[in-house]
């Protein structure tokens, strides 16, 4: 039988390295003197990587009464929810420790924590009591206080008992404390476990929940913890599926923020009787907010069997708008060489969407009002009346105040359902989810990752162009990332140029130059100072990102900062 104390020291060195930086575990192999020591470490590493070869090797070592083979097997089986095998390995490990007279060793404390995990997995009141009893015994042991890893694991398991008991107050406090402690001590594995558990507290804020899980995923991936990595991946896929069901739902459109949930409810009311008695609707919202997408959502949810026909009224010449909508007969006007079916007829039994309705002439609006009321129309140059069953949806980017300058009052009130679509600046909760959706949509199957700094910038930027602006930012970022052959989307990649607006007390940023008495050099100096100061604020005073965005080397950038008397945060 091998020296117990030697094996214990090696095993805890492996654990300590793995919980901090799993990549470095293999470096330990070169320092080991015996084949059995090397085999144990190799087996532990393979097991963490979810390898069947590691399990087989540990089972062989267990037959030779290697206590750490049993301990590692018990931990692995517990993690894959095979409690029967976990309890068997646990019992063998406890018996062997008792035989060796090592019931007060670090190995015994660690095995007790695995026992607590197994009890916790049973999800019963009695099991939770047993878990608490074990954890309290471990935390009261002086040896545990001498081993920060044992202490941290015990505290982490204690948070899970609070969660099991639905004690949200203590769970929140404990998980945040353990997360902070594991981060400060450098135990990345426990930090990642805490991030996964903390995500439970963020279900009302899916972007932050996904962010927490993604951070954990990256840590597990770096550590080589394949089992935990795969579990988090599966969890993220379930969340994506839930978001898809609850928020994307139709045509990839997102209903996440409170205002958008209100809109989704209003849409539900609108489409309830859309097949029997379609109610005309008007969508009010700024340019680029997605009014056309909302119209498609309404059509799809309505269950109408006809086509969805989209007309942008602002792009059709005034003299042709009636022909486009109602159609025309051959020879009805100069150039009409054949009969043309109008878009309204194409939308029979479906939906017609008239975007930018306020850009149409009042004479056309009068005819449209009659069509909506009578559900009938005549093609240009035809005396025959055609009946139509269509859901009418219009949209405008004009504010309600003063809208009657552009739209007949009687037509405005003929659309009793008014749907207010907020701009992206009022839907901050959706920004990161939308950004990641665009990364998937335009990534051609490649995986792109937003750095934490980029996520922060996206959340603080102003979006005068709304979703369309964000979409363009992400498409440009993908091109820049491809050019640099990286999967990481950095802050400067999502910024178009220095003229982009930033959100702040002063709204959009303008540079004002006083050139009444200044010469050319002073004017350039003033402008340079304003630009550097502005970009510093744009990147939340991150000097490195500011320098990279302005394409200045560090020496030149520092010189400018000194000459202009600028400091970080100014």
How would you explain this protein's 3D organization?
This protein is of the alpha/beta class and 570 residues long. It folds into 4 domains: 4-245, Tetratricopeptide repeat domain (Serine Threonine Protein Phosphatase 5, Tetratricopeptide repeat, Alpha Horseshoe); 258-422, Rossmann fold, CATH 3.40.50; 424-488, Helicase, Ruva Protein, domain 3 (Orthogonal Bundle); 511-570, Arc Repressor Mutant, subunit A, CATH 1.10.10. The protein has 25 helices and 11 strands. The chain has helices spanning 4-21, 35-48, 52-63, 67-79, 83-100, 106-121, 125-140, 142-146, 148-164, 168-185, 188-198, 206-223, 226-248, 258-271, 291-302, 321-326, 343-346, 362-374, 409-412, 431-442, 452-460, 466-483, 520-538, 543-550, 554-563, and strands at residues 281-284, 308-312, 327-328, 340-341, 351-355, 376-377, 386-387, 391-396, 417-420, 449-450, 488-489. It has a 5-stranded parallel β-sheet. Strand 6 (376-377) and strand 7 form a beta hairpin. Helix 7 packs antiparallel against helix 9 (148-164) and helix 10 (168-185) runs antiparallel to helix 11. 37% of the residues are buried.
């Amino acid at each position: 039988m091998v020296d117990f104390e030697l094996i214990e020291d090696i095993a805890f060195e492996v654990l300590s390295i793995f919980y901090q930086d799993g990549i470095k575990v293999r470096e330990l192999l070169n320092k080991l003197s015996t084949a059995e020591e090397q085999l144990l470490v190799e087996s532990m590493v393979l097991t963490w990587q979810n390898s069947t070869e590691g399990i087989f090797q540990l089972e062989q070592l267990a037959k030779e009464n290697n206590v750490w083979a049993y301990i590692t097997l018990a931990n692995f089986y517990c993690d894959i929810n095979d409690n029967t095998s976990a309890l068997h390995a646990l019992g063998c490990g406890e018996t062997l420790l008792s035989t060796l007279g090592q019931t007060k060793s670090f190995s015994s404390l660690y095995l007790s924590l695995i026992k607590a995990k197994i009890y916790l997995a049973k999800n019963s009141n009695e099991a939770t009591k047993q878990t608490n009893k074990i954890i309290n015994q471990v935390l009261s042991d002086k040896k545990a206080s001498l081993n920060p890893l044992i202490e941290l694991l015990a505290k982490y398991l204690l948070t899970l008992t609070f969660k099991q008991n639905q004690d949200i107050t203590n769970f929140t406090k404990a998980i945040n404390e353990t997360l902070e402690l594991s981060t400060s001590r450098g135990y990345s594995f426990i930090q990642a476990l805490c991030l996964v558990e903390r995500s439970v507290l963020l279900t009302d804020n899916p972007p932050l929940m996904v962010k927490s899980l993604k951070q954990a995923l990256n840590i597990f991936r770096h550590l080589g913890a394949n089992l935990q990595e795969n579990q988090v991946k599966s969890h993220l896929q379930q969340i994506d599926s839930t978001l898809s069901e609850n928020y994307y739902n139709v045509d990839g459109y997102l209903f996440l923020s409170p205002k958008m949930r209100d809109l989704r409810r209003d849409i539900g009311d609108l489409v309830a009787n859309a097949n029997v008695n379609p109610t005309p609707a008007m969508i009010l919202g700024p340019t680029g907010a997605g009014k056309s997408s909302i119209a498609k959502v309404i059509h799809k949810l309505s269950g109408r069997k006809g086509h969805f026909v989209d007309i942008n009224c602002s792009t059709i010449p005034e003299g042709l708008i009636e022909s486009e909508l109602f159609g025309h007969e051959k020879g009805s006007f100069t150039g009409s060489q054949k009969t043309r079916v109008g878009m309204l007829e194409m939308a029979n039994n479906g939906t017609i969407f008239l975007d930018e309705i306020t850009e149409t002439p009042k004479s056309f609006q009068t005819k449209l009002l009659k069509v909506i009321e009578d559900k009938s129309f005549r093609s240009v140059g035809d005396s025959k009346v055609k009946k139509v069953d269509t859901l009418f949806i219009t949209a405008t980017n004009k504010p309600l105040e003063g809208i009657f300058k552009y739209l007949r009052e009687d037509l405005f009130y003929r659309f009793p359902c008014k749907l207010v679509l907020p701009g992206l600046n009022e839907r901050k909760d959706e920004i990161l989810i939308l950004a990641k959706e665009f990364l998937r949509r335009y990534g051609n199957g490649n995986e792109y990752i937003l750095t934490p700094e980029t996520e922060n910038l996206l959340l603080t930027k102003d979006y005068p162009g709304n979703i369309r602006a964000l979409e363009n930012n992400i498409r440009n970022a993908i091109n820049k990332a491809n050019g640099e052959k990286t999967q990481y989307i950095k802050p400067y990649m999502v910024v178009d140029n220095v003229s982009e607006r930033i959100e702040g007390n002063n709204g959009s940023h303008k540079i004002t130059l006083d050139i009444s008495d200044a010469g050319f050099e002073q004017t350039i100096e003033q402008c340079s100072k304003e630009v550097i100061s502005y970009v510093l604020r744009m990147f939340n005073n991150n000097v490195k990102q500011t320098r990279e965005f302005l394409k200045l080397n560090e020496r030149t950038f520092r010189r400018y900062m000194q000459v202009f008397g600028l400091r970080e945060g100014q």
